[in-house]
Amino acid sequence: MSTSRDPDRLVLFTDAVVAIAITLLILPLVDLVPEVKAEGGDAVSVISEHRQEIFTFLLSFVVIASFWLGHHRLFEHIRAYTPAMMRVNLLWLLTIVVLPFPTEIIGAFESDRFTAGLYIGTILALSVCQSTLTWMVHGHKELESPDNPVGKQELVSSLLLTGLTVLAYLLASLVPGVHFYAMLLLLLSPVFMRVWKGRSRTRTGAQQTD
Q1: Is 7 in contact with 78 (CB distance < 8 Å)?
Q2: Quick one: pLDDT at residue 5?
Q3: How far apart are CA 81 and CA 5, in angstroms?
Q4: What is the pLDDT of residue 125?
Q5: What is the rounded distance in angstroms from the CA atom of residue 56 to the CA atom of residue 21?
Q6: Is residue 99 within 8 Å of 63, Cβ to Cβ?
Q7: Rg of the chain's alpha carbons, rounded to an integer?
Q8: Longest C-alpha distance within the chain, in Å?
Q9: pLDDT over 60 (residue 95)
Q10: Residue 174: which residues within 8 A CB-CB, separation 6 or more?
Q11: How is residue 77 annotated by DSSP?
Q12: pLDDT per position as a tens digit, 191-202
């Protein structure tokens, strides 16, 4: 186990890589401007004729930002880390760095089961890494801060999102016509969490009554 009580170096490295990955997302859109001009198009056509590329950029920006925020919240609970956690964190970063590649593919080609499966599969790998990190820290007193441990709710939320991403990947890859609509399943995560928290409060109240 690392002797560092505050893994700032790991967090700073992670933040730097995420910042670079987010920056790379915009580069294909920047390259469109001279291409459109060379073809005789105007400034409006840069937007109107490349809506899919713009949408995929915004989608991937939101995905990376959401996972980075989750990673940031997780590391607020961490006071030390193990070599295994470092390796999982590197895999998490690998999926972040790779994400601009399928983003460029879905912006350049028509949507089909392959492009949707490649993109959602990358997000699935990212979600699995984040859930693994959360699971490794949860309940580990030598890793999590005693004053701010990883709660069960955070672990359940992470595992739920991964489970929904697995289902979205299977639907996008195997069912014709679904494609990126499968990602709408991820919107169910907060709904399920509200139901779970409501049932947890009910059970807690019942136990206190008994």
Answers
A1: yes
A2: 55
A3: 8
A4: 96
A5: 14
A6: yes
A7: 20
A8: 77
A9: yes
A10: 113
A11: S
A12: 888 887 777 767
Indicate whether 52 pLDDT > 60: yes
Full-model pTM: 0.85
Give the type of residue at 171.
Answer: L
| Tokens (6 digits) for 132 | 């693994």
User: Which residues 6+ apart lie within 8 Å of 29 measured at CB?
Assistant: 50, 53, 54, 57
Kindly list the distances between the CA atom of residue 196 and the CA atoms of 7, 73, 160, in Å, as whole numbers in the listed order. Answer: 32, 21, 11
Confidence of residue 210 (pLDDT cuts 50, 70, 90): low
SS (H, E, C) 105-148: HHHHCCCCHHHHHHHHHHHHHHHHHHHHHHHHHCCCCCCEECCE
What's the distance, CA 77 to chain centroid? 19
- At residue 3, the pLDDT reads 47
d(CA 33, CA 43): 8
